[in-house]
Amino acid sequence: MNAFVRIALSVAAFAMAAPLAAQSWPQRPVKLILPLGPGAGADIGARLFADGLSKRWGQPVVVENRPGGDGVIALNAVIAAKDDHTLLWGPSSAFAGYPYTLDKLPYDKDELVPTARVTVTVVAIAVPASSKASTLKEFVALARENAGQFNWTSITQITDITTAGFIKKNGLQMERIGYKDTVSALNDLVVGRIQFYTAAYAIVRTQAQAGRIKLIAVTNKNRVAGLDLPTATESGFPELEFDGLVGIWGTRSSGFSDAARDRIAADVKAVAADPTVAQRLSATAQVINPGTGADLSASMEEQAATLARVASMVGIKPKF
């Protein structure tokens, strides 16, 4: 065999090895761990995609909810698994918020591997149905009239910071109440124990449609088709603006391969193209926005920059 033939065979073998490597994952059931409870926008999306991905992969895809701890509980569970078939699925807002809410990063900065961008979650601002406020401006006036008597809550790190910034910038006296699950928070909003709630539209939709709560704005940059709600910026409060970004992450210490990452991103895009999936996500006000790991990283950087601007605006400094 001459040198030319050997080189040609080597090139051919390498070309065949790349798709084979991608096809070798997954070899067993895949687990998606979420930092939010059942019913959250990211949870609904994860279960829709899990079904489609399971069909493409020929393996069960299990969704496991690990709420609490500002996402750290779920994050630690994924890292501790040391398994390239255990992935983190959820909002990236926690990562953007950690420098402002934690004393130190709870994981090695290079541990998480951005794998796929999935959707943009529409986030709504809700008040009790009994509230006299139907707009953000009316709420600010009402909160000032009832200084020290109103409570607020939100679901993710970034909504905590933006809401805290909104409260500080507008000189409101309100107390944050923490919840481990979205159901308890929503129930307290309905009965008026909470007066201001920032959460994924999927969480508040049913109660809003039943007339038990009112939605007064969305935090997203642009208005959302099918929802007759102004953006926070339109309402005069740009410090509340952000888009909820949902993605998938693997872990470096698990031996998570580039081939696995690329396959996941490609298959997420394929499932997202299913009209049924798009329709069901749209019903919960989630905008399909699939992309690669690089796309997810770029979107996370943009989100972090937005949060930094808001934090600087209201005098909140990062701790690391």
* Order of SSEs: HEHEHEHEEHEHEHEHEEHHEH
Coarse structural class = alpha/beta
- The strand count comes to 11
Strand content range: 15-25%
What is the mean pLDDT? 89
Please state how the strands of the largest beta sheet are arranged side by side: 2-1-3-10-4-11
Specify the biggest β-sheet.
6 strands, mixed
Instruction: State the low-pLDDT regions, or none.
Output: 3-22
- Rg (C-alpha, Å): 22 Å
Termini separation comes to 60 Å
Helix fraction?
A: 40-55%
Rough shape? Answer: globular
Tally of DSSP helical segments: 11
Describe the structure.
This protein is α/β, with parallel strands linked by helices. It is 45% helix and 21% strand. It is built from 11 helices and 11 strands. The strands form 2 sheets. The protein has a 6-stranded mixed sheet, sandwiched between helices. The chain has a 5-stranded mixed sheet with strand order 7-6-8-5-9, with helices on both faces. The longest helix has 22 residues, at 293-314. It is globular. It starts with a helix and ends in a 6-residue tail after the last helix.
Quickly describe the structure:
Helices cover 45% and strands 21% of the residues.
Topology:
Elements: H1 3-23, E1 30-34, H2 41-57, E2 61-65, H3 72-81, E3 86-91, H4 93-101, E4 112-121, E5 123-128, H5 136-145, E6 150-154, H6 157-169, E7 174-176, H7 182-191, E8 196-200, H8 201-209, E9 213-218, E10 244-251, H9 258-272, H10 275-283, E11 286-292, H11 293-314
Parallel strand pairs: 1-2, 1-3, 6-7, 6-8
Antiparallel strand pairs: 3-10, 4-10, 4-11, 5-8, 5-9
Helix pairs in contact: 1-9, 2-9, 4-6, 4-11, 6-11
